[in-house]
Amino acid sequence: MLQGKIIALGVTGGIAAYKAAEVASRLKKLGADVHCVMTKSATEFITPLTLRTITSNPVTIEMFQEPKIWNVEHIGLADAIDAYLVAPATANIIGKVANGIADDFLSTTIMATKAPVIFAPAMNVNMLENPFYTENIDKLTHHGYRFIEPAVGMLACGYAGKGKLEDPEKIVEQLCEMLCTEQDLVGKKVLVTAGPTMESIDPVRYITNHSSGKMGYQVAEQAARRGAEVVLVSGRTSLPVPYGVTRIDSGSALDMFEKVKKEFSSADIVIKSAAVADYRPKKAADKKIKKKEGDVQILLERNPDILAYLGEHKGQKVLVGFAAETHDLKENACNKVRNKNLDFIVANDILEEGSGFQGDTNKVTFYFADEREVKLPMLSKKEVAGKILDEVVLLSNQRPL
Ligand code: CTP
After folding, report:
1. 101: exposed, middle or buried (C-beta count within 10 Å: 0-12, 13-18, 19+)?
2. Does residue 176 carry a catalytic annotation?
3. 340, 321 contact by CB (below 8 A)
4. Ligand 1 nearest atom to the CA of residue 323, by list position
5. Could you report the per-residue pLDDT of 51-109, keeping only the tens digit for each?
6. Are the beta carbons of 209 and 198 closer than 8 angstroms?
7. Residues 140, 202 within the same domain
8. Range of 314's domain?
9. Are 385 and 221 in contact (CB under 8 A)?
10. How far is the CA of 301 from the centre of ligand 1 (A)?
11. Which helix (H) or strand (E) holds 380?
């Protein structure tokens, strides 16, 4: 899979540095020519000899060490590689690259390369949540640097939480996937909505729906992997924020509407998978409603149709809607494409097996404004997300710049 590829493996100084040996070994087994670059602190955790033996290549640490292969070393390596993987990546190296600091061989070669750079961070959970770190991640993501999300677990510092270096097997898997994923959304801002809305009845109760948000989260994740800047306006779900995606939490349909409007003007592509309530209680009680004998009635009033509003103001943006139907799929979906001025709609019959809200699969048909239709077999939500984005890229390439 990586046959003939030259990969630079940057190793920085964290306890997870010992796992770099396994990453290097797996890359080598897949056919890559691996060149390790270590920071001085990394050599405190793992010896260069280990990495040199595994990769059969010299390991570079010092900027001015005796050249072995590369002519002007940092430029030679930076030019030659197909990808730069930094695993583990400390907050320090991420901070340096984000701020244009090149003060050792690793940071210099990262700055000098035009190849994709992928960081696999590992650090204490509090460092991971530090605002300087999250700002650096946003900045780097914006400029096309990519990340392999750290795992959750027991950390070497004694804390339990997010921050463990992802499993070496998964790092290599994700690297392979990234190298094969076309970067066809670079320079585009994609706005995705996902999950359910919540309409308050009183301070305790609300009306919602069965949306899990899984479809929209996959779209957001795949768009980020394809190089887009992604903003995800999300109703309540238990899903983690996909790496490289900015999530904005929303509650009611009105709240989602406000948040979407703020992001809409700067977006190039909008994919609206959220299950928005069409109605909300006309007046949410400010105190808990106590039970009494007999029935109660809750008067509902219409929510704005967010997608229809976006359709009216769409300009050159690519606008994609979703339709979850139980009957007359084509007719209902095509009406929505027309009425909401969409480029296309992703329609599914939620009563069909493998097509529901909570599952990991979906069987959808795309209905386009030009009356084309594309019927897909049952696929994973990740695969469906990929197909949606393929169509989005085609449409987006037809738009004037
Ligand atoms: N939608 C929206 N705002 C609403 C209702 C729906 O933005 N108030 C969007 C959804 O995010 C989805 C699309 O419209 O992309 C279709 O939603 P759906 O509920 O299936 O359709 P409706 O237009 O509400 O029609 P109906 O409920 O009558 O099927």
Report:
1. middle
2. no
3. yes
4. 20
5. 999 999 999 998 776 555 555 455 688 899 999 999 999 999 999 999 999 999 999 99
6. no
7. no
8. 189-284+295-398
9. yes
10. 15
11. strand 379-380
